[in-house]
Amino acid sequence: MGIFKFIIRRILFGLLTMFVVATVVFLLTQVVRDPAKAILGRDGTGDQLIAKRKELGLDRPKFEQYWTWLTDLVFHQKAPKSFTNKLGMWEFLGDRIENSVFLMFACTLISIPLSIIVGAVAARRRDRTFDSVTSGVNLFLAGTPEYVLGIALLFLFSTNVWHIFPGTVRIRPGQAPWVDLKQLVLPVMTLVLAVVPYVSRTMRASTVEVLESDYVEMARLKGVSEGTVLWRHALPNAIGPTLQVIAINIAYLVAGVITVEALFNYPGVGLAMRDAVLGHDAATVQFIALFISSIYVIVNLLADVGTILVTPRLRTTIR
């Protein structure tokens, strides 16, 4: 029953986190430029501004606006409409959410197995050439912002050196992002290079610790091959601590895609967030921020549960 109590506590904590995030996001969007002024521009008169604020529901008291927005989302599953195009959020962002989720999924599908393999092999070849080279590359990539990596990949594979992949993504409304995978290579590669260093370094450190444990030494004394020791005995026990870093990096992808989508003109929620901020569309900013934070909470919840399930010591101590 301990694991179920833990899951319930984490769900309640996640809901509390979501409430705090929703409140902070709403308050922050109230201190930016008046959306009515941003929509009408410089030529908007006083009467026009009053009428536009009433149309957008901005003429009501702030607490009433907040309570209506929150209760509509939580209890009525009613998403607000965009201030700029009057479309409901799911209608406006449905395709963009699908595009961003697919981009995150593709990056996760490549980066996580690659990171685990690189980290495990580096631990197995500790202080050798492979370990030294991968450690240096990881440090370099970890210290390089993703937009710099993206620009470098554009320079190498799209514009100046080789013309292999398209530099911009062209996905028409209603078109699935996987229709033309070639145009997704550079965005996915950028995100993979941004994620791999952190996960692989953590995997290496965790695997090194496990390889020095008593039960691994016992397996070696019994004549078990080093390959079997690494992949059958060390890896399953080393992957537990790495799950937390994997979760953090997957959650990072939700926010990291904003830069990558803007760089490659990828029509996802990141690009929508940028346009909403520039256009002072507070309703869209609030919805996207809440959507991103919800994914962050869910991913971390799954990582916490997964860490306990793959770590026997934690399963026996949890209450």
Structural description of this entry:
About 75% of the residues lie in helices and about 0% in strands. With about 325 residues, it is mostly helical. α5 (about 90-125) crosses α8 (about 185-210) and α7 packs across α8. The radius of gyration is 24 Å and the shape is globular. It starts with a helix and ends with a helix.
Could you write a compact summary of the structure shown?
The protein is 76% helix and 0% strand. It is mainly α and 319 residues long.
Main attributes of the structure:
319 residues, mainly alpha, 13 helices
Q: Kindly state the mean pLDDT as a whole number?
A: 78
The number of strands is: 0
- Low-pLDDT windows of residues: none
Q: Give the overall shape, derived from the CA principal axes.
A: globular
Computed structural class: mainly alpha
Distance between the termini: 8 Å
What is the N-to-C order of secondary-structure elements (H for helix, E for strand)?
A: HHHHHHHHHHHHH
Count of helical segments?
A: 13
